[in-house]
Amino acid sequence: MPHTAQINRIAKEMFEIADENGDEDISVDEFVAWCGTHVVSQRLLGSFKSARKQVDKHVDKRKLRQMSEEALNKAMKNGDPEKYKALSLAAQVRCHPSLRGALPLQWMCRQAAR
Amino acid sequence: MTLPGKARHCVGVLALSNSNVAWCRWTSDAVARAYERAKAVKPMLATTDAKQTPGGVRLTRREFWDVFTDYTVLHGDSWLSLPLYVFSMFDNTDSGTVDVLEVFLMVALFSEGEMEDQLRFCFKVFDTDHSGSITIDEMLHFFQVLCRASFKVLAAAVPACLRGT
After folding, report:
1. What pLDDT, in 10s, does the model give residues B139-157?
2. Does one domain contain both A73 and A32?
3. Do A19 and A44 fall within a single domain?
4. Interhelix angle A43-57/A105-113, nearest 10 degrees
5. Of A2, A4, A77, B4, which is the most exposed, with the fewest CB atoms less than 10 Å away?
6. CA A32 to chain CA mean position, Å
7. Which residues does chain B have within 8 Å of residue A36's beta carbon, measured at their own beta carbons?
8. Structural domain of residue A40, as residue ranges?
9. Number of separate domains in chain A
């Protein structure tokens, strides 16, 4: 789920696109035309994807790796095999070239930090 | 098991558009009638308060059943209704309530009928000041609801094993 700030930014951009006559309001016809091309055709989903990619760029991957390793060591010390297995799997998925990007980086960061 | 991004996207899109989703049985008229029932249950729904309420206008399980059961339409041998698993789909925090606009948006967008009618209904729902146009505030509200609803539906559509949990 994108952050509220991202949603608002995209909403403002989309508002400008939808407001064809520039009167700061969207009429029903403008709304139908805009939704038909952006929401229904899933261009909107593409906007969210690109917004998420931008956020992922700001993640400190070194710090994430370090956190992941710390979590793995902690799970191993505490003798928690289930957690260790889950963390190992997350690390493998993150490092595997074909699966890179299959899971959002931030989500995995949160899982590793738990 | 984890699928590459493209495959996961296909799973989500299929789940959204597939006819096995309960709301595909709903027509634009049925959705409009449900909206009138919702307004009777929650009068603030059609006012500007709807977008100012944190977490949105919420329905309990009982209210959900009352709003999304249409006793004027028979489907097979039962009334037209949204099954309670749809309630669970939108209540992803187990709060016992759902944001009624999230449900209406998804039901309206994926119901049977002309796309233009569905979009005009969405416009009516989010034009909370009844000015005949959508302002930037209403657009922000529409986007937030659309975002939350889409993510809940996609999350429910992709099995837990594919989400890596």
Report:
1. 898 888 888 888 887 776 5
2. no
3. yes
4. 50
5. A77
6. 28
7. 115-116, 119
8. 4-57
9. 2
